[in-house]
Design a protein that fits this description.
By secondary structure, the chain is of the alpha+beta class. It has one domain. The protein has 7 helices and 9 strands, in the order αββααββαβαββββαα. The strands form 2 sheets. The protein has a 7-stranded mixed beta sheet, with helices on both faces. Strand 3 and strand 4 form a beta hairpin. The termini are far apart.
Length: 253
């Protein structure tokens, strides 16, 4: 069968667009590395076991911690530290073990970012998921999140799409794919998305460790331990998410 030149051009344009987006995500990862951004992971319970991933600027955080200390290191200014942490956060994704089987995927919750790091963070989320798969939040999805998953569905041939089955009216014999479905026409939210292979985030993880090492010698004097730092960063990511979506109505999420 002959393919018209117009169809061929459109096909090539589509392929280049898809490859271009993948290249942009990898370029964003390289930019994060060049900006010496860091990733931290904190185990939390989000209705089921899970964790929070935070993308942040460790130099900003460390700088505010050091500037908050008194000359004799006997005290520190909490407000200065909190302001510094708030300014350091670039993005956050909460992930939890999905409440339904959902192909064994982790459910993404509380995702927010600035500076265009959202798509990269979702690819990173797949790296941290036990089996490389994620599903959208089953209760609230912002318009931006919905658009991102639509792109996964339509424009990411490198990402595997695993259809979810209605837990309340199952159509497949296996329970492995059962999940609470979105029934508002956004069918792209009713898939688990799985990316074969991991994104290399070792440098971003290392940046976090190095940042923490630079203030470690002050921590004992302040009565801090590593959990204290994790608490501060986790609180900051929660504040970051709240500020991003402060004016978003529930029905728009």
């Amino acid at each position: 069968m002959l393919i018209s030149e117009r169809l061929l051009r459109n096909y090539v344009r589509q392929i280049l667009s898809e490859e271009g987006m993948i290249d942009k995500i990898m370029a964003k990862l390289e930019l994060a590395k060049s900006q010496q951004l860091a990733i931290f992971k904190r185990q939390v319970n989000l209705g089921s076991p899970g964790f929070v991933l935070g993308l942040y600027k460790p130099n900003v955080f460390v700088g505010h911690v050091l500037s908050s200390l008194s000359d004799d290191l006997s005290s520190y200014d909490v407000e200065t530290i909190q302001q510094g942490v708030d300014k350091s956060i670039v993005g956050v994704i909460g992930m939890r073990r999905a409440l339904d089987p959902s192909h064994g995927a982790y459910e993404v919750t509380n995702a927010a970012s600035t500076q265009g790091y959202g798509p990269m963070l979702h690819d990173v989320a797949m790296t941290y998921s036990t089996n490389g798969a994620i599903v959208p939040d089953r209760n609230a999805v912002s318009k931006e999140e919905s658009s991102l998953y639509r792109f996964y569905m339509d424009k990411r041939p490198d990402v595997e799409k695993l259809k979810l089955d209605d837990r309340d009216d199952p159509h497949t014999p296996s329970r492995e794919d059962d999940a609470k479905l979105w029934k508002d026409g956004r069918d792209h939210l009713n898939f688990a998305y799985k990316k074969p292979g991991a994104i290399d985030v070792k440098e971003l993880e290392s940046n976090h460790k190095n940042g923490m090492s630079s203030i470690k010698k002050y921590m004992s004097k302040l009565g801090w331990d590593e959990e204290t730092i994790d608490d501060i960063l986790q609180t900051a990511t929660a504040d970051f998410f709240s500020k991003i979506y402060a004016d978003v109505k529930e029905e728009d999420r």
